[in-house]
Specification:
The complex is a heterodimer. In chain A, helix 2 runs antiparallel to helix 3 and helix 7 packs antiparallel against helix 8. Helices cover 71% and strands 0% of the residues of chain A. Chain A starts with a helix and ends with a helix. By secondary structure, chain A is mostly helical. Chain A is elongated and about 110 Å long. Chain A contains 8 helices and no strands. Helices cover 52% and strands 15% of the residues of chain B. In chain B, helix 2 packs across helix 3. The longest helix of chain B is centred in the last third of the chain and has 23 residues. The radius of gyration of chain B is 16 Å and the shape is globular. The chains are: A mainly alpha, B alpha+beta. The interface between A and B is medium-sized, with 29 and 25 residues.
């Protein structure tokens, strides 16, 4: 691990810690590199430094926050109100630029995800339970087939199919609400067929 | 509240206090001393070492001195660290606590052999 890389990684540590110990940490790494020669020891050194770097990160922040907390608990002895500054280091322009870039990327991703997942499924998704129930309610009721003779039943079915066709074409068209305005009216041929069916059932019951 | 942060005393901090018991050392010297006294089991990297040192400095357990360059490792000026009296007390208390643990382990026959 080069010194530049270590210095870059040290930016993840608290600013006060970095300011105080970065030089010493670099010296320590330099000393270790000088003493630990050979490929295996060098690989071990890099692994050791990487693991230690990420292991020491939470502890450094914990110490930093505890120092800040202790400082904030010190009572103000002066008669005027005072403010204590936690960070004296201002934001760098590169940090601001990076922050802007991340914000814009995050916003763009959010919009993209919203478009692909939330808006497009309205056009192609399966009908909702309410839609399917409304469709079933709008279908004209067919008379039971077993009580009729085959010729009449065939005529009834053809009549009902011809009556349903405009309704079906109407149903396939996409609608926003999924509600139908009114049930389809019964055609004269279908009414006549149902009358005949009723008459035949009454005759069978009389006999 | 000196005991709040170092109670219980972390293992790395205890090893640093032990390493400074004999002489003042800089960061790399502490690392080598800890490695030696633990038979190579503990090797402190810069992250753990300096965060522990910072905690010990804040609690007043060690003090910082400017000892100049170390001819063994280079010509750069280095910060040296010294064990303070409260640090020595804390190290003694921790050693006694560990000795008590050892005694209990020996009574329970968990620990056998030639241990102190």
């Amino acid at each position: 691990m080069s010194e530049k890389m270590l210095a870059l990684l040290f930016r993840l540590y608290p600013p006060a810690f970095r300011e105080r110990y970065l030089h010493e940490a670099l010296l320590l790494c330099r000393d270790r590199r000088r003493h630990e020669t050979g490929i295996y020891r060098r690989v071990g050194l890099v692994c050791d430094l990487s693991i230690d770097f990420f292991a020491g990160l939470p502890k450094a922040w914990q110490t930093f926050y505890s120092i800040v907390a202790v400082r904030s608990q010190v009572p103000n002895t002066r008669p005027v109100p005072s403010f204590s500054l936690l960070h004296s280091e201002p934001l760098r322009p590169t940090s601001i630029l990076l922050g802007c870039m991340f914000s814009i990327t995050a916003f763009g991703l959010f919009v993209l995800i919203l478009r692909t997942t939330a808006l497009s499924p309205f056009e192609s998704r399966a009908p909702s339970p309410i839609d399917s129930v409304m469709r079933r309610l709008n279908q004209p009721a067919l008379p039971p087939v077993q009580d009729r003779d085959p010729q009449k039943a065939a005529g009834d079915i053809s009549a009902s199919v011809s009556a349903q066709q405009p309704v079906k074409s109407d149903e396939t068209a996409p609608t926003g609400s999924g509600l139908r305005s009114a049930p389809p009216q019964v055609l004269p041929a279908q009414a006549e067929a149902s009358k005949k069916l009723l008459a035949s059932t009454f005759e069978t019951t009389d006999t | 509240m000196p005991r709040r942060k170092l109670d219980p005393l972390p293992s790395a901090a205890f090893q640093i206090l032990l390493s400074l018991a004999d002489s003042d050392l800089h960061g790399y010297g502490i690392m080598r001393q800890v490695e030696e006294q633990t038979n190579g089991r503990m090797r402190l990297g810069p992250g753990t070492l300096y965060s522990s040192i910072q905690g010990l400095l804040e609690e007043g357990m060690i003090e910082e001195t400017d000892g100049g360059p170390d001819p063994e490792v280079g010509h750069e000026r280095r910060r040296y660290y010294r064990l303070s009296s409260s640090g020595r007390k804390l190290a003694r208390a921790e050693a006694e606590r560990l000795a008590d643990l050892l005694r209990v382990a020996r009574v329970k026959k968990i620990l056998r052999g030639k241990y102190v």
